[in-house]
Amino acid sequence: MVENPSVTDERNGSAITEDEAALYDRQIRLWGLDAQKRLRASCVLLVGIKGLGAEICKNLVLSGVKSVTIVDPNPVNEQDFVSQFLVQRQDIGKNIHINDICHDNGVKFFAADVFGFYGYMFADLGEHKFVEEEPKIIEASDNESSRSDGEPKAKYRKVDVNETTIVQKFAEFYRLKAALACKLDNRTEKILKRLPSVYFMIKVILRFQSQYGRLPQTTMNTGERDNLLTLRDEVMKELNLDVTLLPDEFASHCTAEVSPICAIVGGIVGQEVVKAVSGKDAPLNNFFFYNGLEGHGTVECFN
Amino acid sequence: MASMAGTSEIYRNVLGSDLSQCVENAKVLMVGAGGIGCELLKNLVLTGFKDIEVIDLDTIDVSNLNRQFLFQKRHVGKSKAEVSRESALRFNPDANIKARHDNIMSPEYGVDFFKQFNVVMNALDNRAARNHVNRMCLAADVPLVESGTAGYLGQATVIKKGVTECYECQPKPTQKTFPGCTIRNTPSEAIHCIVWAKHLFNQLFGEADADEEVSPDTEDPEAVGAAGEKAVQNQEKEDAIGGIERASTRTWAEDIGYDPVKLFNKLFNEDIKYLLSMDKLWRKRKPPVPLDWETIKKACNNEEKEADNGLQDQRVWSPEECSDIFSQSIDTLKQQLLARGEDLVWDKDDTASMDFVTSAANIRAHIFSIAMKSRFDVKAMAGNIIPAIATTNAIISGVIVMQALNILNGNLDKCKTIYLNRKPNPRKRLLVPCGLVPPNPKCYVCAAKPEVTVFLNTETLTVKTLEEKILKERFGMVAPDVEIEDGKGSILISSEEGETEQNLPKTLSEFHVGNSARLKADDFLQNYQLVLNIKHRDNLEDDVEFEVEGDVPAPRPLSPEPGPSTEPEERENQAAAGDNDEVMIVDEPAPSRKRKADESQQEAEEQQDMETAKRARVSDATADEDDDDIIAL
Ligand SMILES: [Zn+2]
């Protein structure tokens, strides 16, 4: 299997037509022609097509990938040859299983979901090589630095906006299994407090799913909320962590796929897939969490 | 995408019955149906909004299709507002969407129009319209969600009268311009040549502007050391080019029938030789090398045209190719001029216009030993193109709806300015919420009695410049009336057509407007009054007609990784003198809230605490005010 099929597999030739150049003008200006060439040679398998899946699909089609194949959760087949794998709203066993196949075969894997006002993305890009453009830095000459405002010259490093250097980089990713089994109780209280609570919420919802065979359905119902809070207490106890790391409010805001949250998480996933297949720019490693009540989106590496 | 259609039941479940009721009853206005607008309209419809008005002046272009997903190839040339409405209705046929293919700055949309809405959402790309909507929302006391994106970066914030900063509370850097003599005499960067070529286009085919001369500037202070020398040079100049300067470039071009060879030799040979004669300019610079048509044609060898990825746009043309394209594009533009019978307007999407500017700029760059650029790169600089992608717009449009939900829910205190960074910040945040900031008491827009001090030369500045450049361009008024505070209430400018036309060419001093005069400017549509305190200055720099107290000079390039939210602004300021459409201005509110890329954890925490404090203040102030909001890039 190919380690990074998207980079080596340009089977349809690489020439971008004038029409494509006009259509993708505004993004070629952002990520460059090479990235666009890789995009147009890449194939994505998308598993699940509800609100979030539709957002992701739209973003990928707009970006100009060669194909997006959509399947419903069940018929996933190990023989599928894909350069990207996207999974959402699966039970955890399946996600972990698919991730393992991908990881072993050098296929980039993403999982993402939206629960009410919250959402997340997980990425396992294996051993990921990418390039980053960095501005060329030129020390300001004496002339230029003697500015009328008298600022010391050390403050002005001049960046030539027209010139950049391409730097090759590397990032190592971990399997979903490892990311979810991450031990945390040896970390300091300060570090724990900074962890995005959505991580714990995902664990609670996964527990809910395996216990009840479905996702939490309505928050109008206090019974459902109480069940979630009970599972929260259970999960946090097993992790040997304080329950306040996942405040109660999550239980009232974690059902259904809220459209703006799908747009936000779907936008993040879309951009990460573009980065993954184009090999351009540093990917988010390995979780992104969005908290719609607080308005923040956080990247955290669990392994 | 059938599954994207939300149902009221789901929204009652997730939003709670109160909020979903608010959403269903809310009447909202969306200004702009472009990149952010398409995403936003989809989100609004899917979130259960039922009563939506969309306004956009623009029509669909092929370069919109990479992100404006409500549009398809067959829609190119049609109204964005109307097509976005039709497409969005397919997600939810029950929504009531009203589309207006119109300019939001038109007098039709007065304060009463804005008052009908519970929330206004901006999805705009230019500062003039943002300033205007900001004022209309202040006047109507309607909360505004302001937003913007540029490449990977984005932001969205809320503006509420009396509670938060308005869009104009923090002075925004003015657009960068280049000194006339750099453009005309001593270009040192590609952008100087591109600006020159655009000026040349206007001189030859468009509306000529006295500020856009392209011929050598004999009054370059650097070249004229002594008065005697200047006289000599002027003499030489007339000898050298036979008094061509006296006639306008346009008249001369018409007289020679737009002969490309004559134009070429005048611009790239005679004018350059003339510049060389101003030898002081070249003591510390590499002198330019004049080109002439005959030589360049002879030099035209059969060099292999490197087919770099096959795209004509991406390749840097040789000087020979440039001269061919220069000649061809002049012929085409001449025909266009004849066919239209009126001045051409430079358009980056018009092939001949773009070819002309690319070739002329590159020939000039070649003459001055400046690296030549591909048509693709010239287009970015000449057209002020800000790259744009679907994903950033999708994220920001989601954030806008979250802001709107907080507003409708009565939780203004939960609204924040949200920045989308390119990379996680030191606190690992990719989406960064910052507390809203209270209004700037000195804001020249939202202060109770706004005043501003303007430095200008009352002996030379005309009433026309006051109206066009100061009141309209700088202070964003649409149709100002101006009264002199002289005890008699003399009218200097009236927005009624024909009433004060005769004043326009006169200088301020002719109306006894001198140092310390006070002018009351009033824009009826915006319900906005501004007092200008005039300070006479006769020593303003060259090319500067006026200065506003407290203005921020255009920023110089900063250290390597600019703070995430600073980038769009810088890009804007690097951009050239263009001023068209979709792509141009990427604004952002409140420079005070910019975050440094290198902020330490500790500082970040302090910042966070500060923000908490700010939020507390904001919520105190909320008591009985109506809202206004903010725009993000
Ligand atoms: Zn203000």
UniProtKB/TrEMBL annotation, chain A:
Keywords: Ligase. It comes from the Eukaryota. The keyword Ligase applies. Pfam families: ThiF. One of its GO terms (cellular component) is cytoplasm. GO terms for molecular function: SUMO activating enzyme activity; ubiquitin activating enzyme activity. Its EC number is 6.2.1.45. Belongs to the ubiquitin-activating E1 family. This is SUMO-activating enzyme subunit 1.
TrEMBL record, chain B:
GO terms for biological process: protein sumoylation. ATP binds at residues 32-37, 56, 64-67, 80, 125-130. Keywords: ATP-binding, Ligase, Metal-binding, Nucleotide-binding, Nucleus, Transferase, Ubl conjugation pathway, Zinc. Residues 210-222, 600-609, 622-633 have a biased composition (Acidic residues). Residues 187-277, 303-379 form the Ubiquitin-activating enzyme SCCH domain. Pathway: Protein modification; protein sumoylation. One of its GO terms (cellular component) is cytoplasm. Residues 554-565 have a biased composition (Pro residues). SUPFAM superfamilies: Activating enzymes of the ubiquitin-like proteins (SSF69572). It comes from the Eukaryota. Belongs to the ubiquitin-activating E1 family. This is SUMO-activating enzyme subunit. The lineage of its organism: Eukaryota, Metazoa, Cnidaria, Anthozoa, Hexacorallia. The gene is UBA2.
